[in-house]
Amino acid sequence: MNVENKPQQTWLLIGLTINLVATILHYTDNFIFFTNYPAPAGMHPQHVWIAWLILVPFAVIGYIQYAKGNFWVAYSCLCVWALTSVGGIAHYFFESMSAFSLKMHIFIWFEELTGCLLLGFIFWSCLILQEWRKEKFVD
Length: 139
Prior knowledge:
Blueprint: H1 6-32, H2 45-68, H3 71-86, H4 102-128
Helix pairs in contact: 1-2, 1-4, 2-3, 3-4
């Protein structure tokens, strides 16, 4: 583990935890109240939880790889996870905003905000701190 990135690792863990809470709230609500959420034709409630189960490993692997100092693998996995979080806004392509309840808006935008924060962290780590350039220390 890279000893120098410990504070950043803590911030990433906090951000991922908050984002996971946001996705759990949104995906669970979307699954339970599937008929209330506008969705593309052919989509079924099972697709919601299956998608979440497929995507969660990207967040977990991304964090583990970041902690190990394998930054490019971490950035790639975390980008997939974060982009799917900000992708929740796509709900609004299928119906007008007035078709959504306040709760739905809150869950969508909570996930959107936390996904944007994760993307911000990735860009900060990669472009500003350039952690990928730092020497990796082995325990």
